[in-house]
TrEMBL record:
Lineage of the organism: Bacteria, Pseudomonadati, Bacteroidota, Chitinophagia, Chitinophagales
UniProt similarity note: Belongs to the AHA1 family.
Record keyword Cytoplasm present: no
Protein name: Activator of Hsp90 ATPase homolog 1-like protein
Coiled-coil segments: none
Top-rank taxon: Bacteria
Keywords: Signal
Start and end residues of each Activator of Hsp90 ATPase homologue 1/2-like C-terminal domain: 46-163
Signal peptide range in chain numbering: 1-20
KW Repeat (keyword) present: no
């Protein structure tokens, strides 16, 4: 019984430590627009961190078992969580690459799929994710995700809540790569 209790406590401590590593600094800017902003620090250099987000191999390590990236302005990231599907399947997620500065920034167009309220999907023209990569030192990189372009209304609040939870989960998946 003591061993089981100790395992549960250690598991909760590990989970709390993982939670503490994702920082939510979301805000409403001076123009009244929401910014969903999360960040993490990963214990690896900037170039390796960049590869996690900009190569097929890197994406497959943490985001989805099926992943393909056409890394260029106007390219796209396509992923599917189902190993038996392809990136061309209708269940795949596609993020268009708006622009990037190598090893610094990657801007993605977030395309709402049929899982989101029809009103939000119809109004979705500007929803984007800006990923910033900041070298802290030779062995640590900060990744900042800022989602902008939110609409107004309950349907947009639902989309925001989905991405707030989903982006937190996604960053935790990245952090798992560095757990021992």
């Amino acid at each position: 019984m003591i061993k089981i209790l100790l395992i549960i406590i250690l598991g909760q401590v590990a989970f709390c430590n993982l939670n503490a590593q994702v920082t939510n600094s979301s805000y409403v800017n001076q123009y009244g627009e929401k910014v969903l902003q999360l960040s993490i620090v990963v214990p690896t250099n900037l170039k390796e961190t960049w590869k996690l987000f900009t190569t097929d191999e890197g994406l497959k390590k943490w985001i989805a078992p099926v992943a393909k990236i056409d890394m260029k302005t106007g390219g796209a990231i396509k992923t599917n969580y189902n190993r038996s599907k392809t990136v061309e399947d209708s269940t795949s997620i596609k993020l268009d690459i708006i622009n990037y500065l190598e090893n610094e920034m990657l801007t993605l167009k977030v395309n709402l799929n049929n899982s989101f309220p029809a009103e939000a999907k119809k109004e979705d023209k500007n929803l984007q994710e800006i990923l910033q990569f900041v070298k802290l030192d030779e062995n640590n990189t900060k990744i900042i995700s800022s989602m902008v372009g939110w609409g107004q209304g309950i349907h947009w609040d639902k989309a925001y809540n989905f991405f707030e939870k989903g982006n937190d989960w996604t960053f935790k998946e990245v952090l798992k790569l560095f757990q021992k």
